[in-house]
Design a protein that fits this description.
The complex is a heterotrimer. By secondary structure, chain A is an alpha+beta fold. Chain A is about 30% helix and about 30% strand. Chain A is globular and about 55 Å long. The N and C termini of chain A lie far apart (about 60 Å). Chain B has six helices and twelve strands. In chain B, a hairpin with a 2-residue loop joins β7 and β8. In chain B, about 25% of the residues lie in helices and about 35% in strands. Classes of the chains: A alpha+beta, B alpha+beta, C alpha+beta. Chains A and B meet through β3 and β5 of A and β3, β6, β7 and β8 of B.
Chain lengths: ~250, ~280, ~250
């Protein structure tokens, strides 16, 4: 595959003033916008813009399982399908799902399962379809976050929402919420998700090198970030109804 | 209306049919009215051109990507453009996972033929070095919500994405193609504006732009792609049959409707001035 | 047959005990676990020291129960529910029926018996026939068996049940059904009177409508979707009455 412009791998990820290339401080999040009920045909749906990431999620369920042999007699099953559009990345991606997409689908599914009451819906399936139409670092975190919103939007009972964010390292500095460039050219990346029901981590991966102090610090940083994003999720879910109340109850 | 199910109720079928006989459509439109189009372009930062188009409830996001490669031997100075469509399972309980099925292939091919046979994409402008190096443009359409008539929505989406495109300009140097630092834009590569115009048929009544319930009840549909003065593609699908007069009438109507649509949508406002 | 009989459920949206507070999954409803018990839509948190919501909805306190009235949700069949279904399949023993639930409903042939009163030579007789149904037919049925594990079963035997023809069926979010009916049927009575339409609201979120013409039907459909969207607001019945009166005038429909 030949392109005229090559993908950026800047030598320096921190500017002289200590800020990151996009002007952010070490713990600043990129701008995030969320919306629910965006795909009318789905039982529940949500959309997120996180930096340049743009991701749709829609939920169908509970419904009968196809193919039937996958159904479990004592509980429902959750299936997550994370996919990226061909034009969502710098170099056009093949349309068919690759190994990375399948791995991320599985990781997100295992992350969301603990908050669902699958034992109440035997023999059925809940399916979450995630489509990344524009990617710029941290898509699995944004996808998990938007998938949790779509589940809540569908009215599916959940023990709590789930929120996800990543912390990484560039030029020896720990930073929150890596952008695409920082992810590609940086030294490490730790995506993480928390289930607020029991305040426990339900998604955790790590690539790179870090020492024990950095692990502690990273976990603190990511927790702070996830708390902020959680507030946004709650606000998005409720705003839809609050706005209607305000408009009509004057 | 009722949720989309695999079996449409007879009540819904009869309701749509009986009202059509009185020239009434369930959403209050006239027989030859489009639902509202809404177009946004350059929404995808990673793509070299993009659009997000809604037609009623139908929503399609199209992205343009490019590659550099060798031309076809019989067209040594022309770039290549390929159009693909995916009916995402997220868009409808009727869509299944897996490789593109007949419906997505038909969507891609109908939009493709409408564009290909018009003087739309100026393929010579997509040539960097004759016989050696041309652009391959990928126009990939993703259906995000299915509300009926994906073809017309897709055609507007593909066209507006192409017009919004900003592809790195290449020049042939000793060692191969190099970026000049400038961009080829939609204004450079697009000339004609072909549009797909789709009609449904229920009980001998013809109408424009079937919404999803109408589409599910229709015996068939017919799409005509037209530029200002030429028909560039026709696709009849479904079991319905048409008289010669009906086809001639639809041909006439397509030009009228397309011209009106071009004025309303004003496509050239979406071209980019990228430096 | 067209009206609903007395509503079987209270309109919880208009209930005094339902607050205006919107809660989301995982949010704390109260920390007073000594005086309150989690009811519908609520559970104890992991530590057992708080009651939290499991859905997006309106917080409601009824005696010592804390409930959450859902604003979104799917239909779960309960015995006694009236549902509008579409026949999707038939075999010699039974019909299968789409009732907007996670499983299709089963309609056994014996439960499609119709009792027809006939006059033969001056004597009134009752004749039993089977209602013949085809794929695509709409029916109003009653749930006679439903549990988590199996397909729900429905019957067409009973008052106001059976095949439906004419009119149109629309679908709303099942949790909003009580709002369309209203307290003591107030909302549905108002809708019927002002739009000159017959309406049947089923528990599974489907609504059958038949009006004198398509304009009245369109207005009613719009009104129903508006009620669905604003179900959680106060003063809705009055506002809807005003909306319909204004639109009737504006559209020249008098």
């Amino acid at each position: 595959m030949t392109l005229l412009i090559q993908d950026e791998y800047p030598k320096k990820l921190l500017r002289d003033d200590g800020k990151r290339l996009d002007g952010r401080g070490k713990t600043d999040l990129r701008p995030i916008k969320m919306e629910v009920d965006v795909i009318k045909n789905a039982d529940g749906s949500a959309y997120i813009e996180w930096g340049n990431n743009k991701i749709y999620a829609s939920v169908y369920g509970p419904r009968e399982v196809h193919p039937h042999h996958l159904a479990k007699p004592d509980r429902g099953i959750l299936r997550v399908f994370y996919r990226m559009a061909t034009f969502s990345v710098f170099e056009r991606k093949r349309p068919a799902p690759g190994r990375r997409e399948k791995e991320i689908s599985m990781v997100i599914s295992e992350c969301l399962e603990p908050v669902l009451f699958l034992e109440l819906y035997p023999g059925t399936s809940f399916e979450i379809f995630i489509e990344v139409v524009d990617a710029d670092g941290g898509t699995r975190c944004a996808s998990t976050t938007v998938a949790a919103l779509a589940l809540a939007d569908a009215g599916i009972p959940m023990r709590s929402l789930v929120t996800s964010c990543a912390v990484g390292k560039i030029e020896g500095q720990l930073i929150t919420d890596l952008s695409g460039i920082e992810d590609k050219a940086g030294e490490s990346d730790m995506p993480c998700a928390i289930s607020w029901f029991n305040d426990e981590i339900s998604l955790l991966q790590f690539d790179g090198k870090m020492n024990r102090a950095e692990l502690d610090e990273s976990l603190n940083m990511v927790r702070n970030a996830m708390e902020k994003i959680y507030e946004m999720q709650l606000d998005t879910l409720k705003q839809k109804y609050i706005q209607i109340q305000e408009q009509n109850e004057g | 209306m009722m949720d989309i199910k695999r079996v449409i109720s007879t009540i819904e079928k009869n309701y749509i049919k009986n009202n059509l006989k009185k020239e009434e459509r369930i959403d209050g439109r006239g027989l030859w009215d489009y639902r509202d189009f809404n177009i946004k372009t350059n929404t995808i930062a990673s793509a070299e051109g993009s659009s997000e188009v809604t037609l009623g409830d139908t929503k399609i996001i199209t992205g343009i990507k490019y590659e550099i490669g060798e031309p076809f031997p019989d067209l040594p100075n022309k770039g290549v453009c390929t159009i693909m469509a995916e009916l995402l399972p997220l868009a409808s309980p009727l869509f299944e996972r897996g490789p593109p099925d007949e419906e997505s292939i038909e969507l891609a091919r109908v939009v493709d033929r409408g564009i290909r046979h018009a003087d739309c994409i100026q393929a010579e402008k997509l040539c960097i070095k004759e016989e050696k190096c041309v652009y391959i443009l990928f126009v990939d359409m993703y259906v995000i919500n299915h509300g009926g008539n994906m073809i017309d929505c897709g055609s507007v989406s593909a066209l507006s994405a192409l017009i919004s495109s900003h592809i790195p300009e290449g020049k042939w140097m000793e060692n191969g193609p190099e970026w000049t630092g400038e961009y080829i834009t939609g204004k450079d590569i697009i000339k004609d504006l072909p549009l797909a115009i789709t009609f449904g048929k229920i009980d001998n009544i013809l109408f424009l732009d079937p919404s999803l319930p109408e589409e599910l009840v229709s015996e068939g549909r017919i799409t005509m792609s037209v530029t200002e003065d030429e028909i560039t593609s026709i696709q009849k699908s479904g079991a319905a049959t048409y008289t010669l007069d009906e086809i001639k009438m639809l041909g006439e109507k397509s030009f009228e409707i397309a011209e009106k649509l071009r004025k309303e949508l004003n496509f050239w406002q979406y071209s980019t001035n990228k430096k | 047959m067209e009206n609903n009989e007395e509503p079987e459920q209270d309109d919880e949206f208009e209930d005094e005990e339902t607050s205006r507070e919107i809660v989301a999954p995982g949010e704390v409803l109260t920390e007073d676990v000594h005086n309150f018990i989690p009811g519908r839509g609520a559970i104890l948190n992991k530590k057992g020291d708080k009651i939290i919501s499991v859905i997006i909805g309106l917080k409601q306190i009824k005696k010592n129960y804390i409930n959450v009235i859902p604003l979104r949700g799917f239909y779960t069949p309960q015995i006694g529910d009236k549902v509008i279904g579409i026949i999707t399949d038939k075999n010699p023993v039974k019909y299968k029926c789409d009732i907007n639930a996670k499983y299709e409903g089963i309609l056994k042939i014996k439960n499609t018996v119709k009792h027809n009163k006939m006059r033969i030579r001056g004597n009134q007789r009752e004749e039993e026939t089977l209602e013949k149904l085809y794929v695509g037919d709409a029916i109003i049925g009653k749930i006679i068996a439903a549990d988590r594990l199996n397909s729900p079963e429905i019957t067409l035997v009973g008052k106001y049940l059976g095949r439906k023809s004419g009119g149109i069926i629309i679908q709303i979010d099942p949790p909003k059904v009580p709002r369309i009916i209203g307290r003591n049927g107030s909302m549905i009575k108002m809708l019927k009177n002002l739009t000159n339409c017959n309406i049947f609201v089923a528990q599974n979120g489907r609504i059958w409508i038949k009006g004198i013409n398509i304009e009245h039907e369109r207005l009613l459909i719009e009104a129903i979707y508006k009620i669905e969207e604003e179900a959680h607001t106060t003063g809705l019945t009055d506002r809807m009455e005003e909306f319909i009166k204004n639109e009737t005038k504006r559209r020249g429909m008098e």
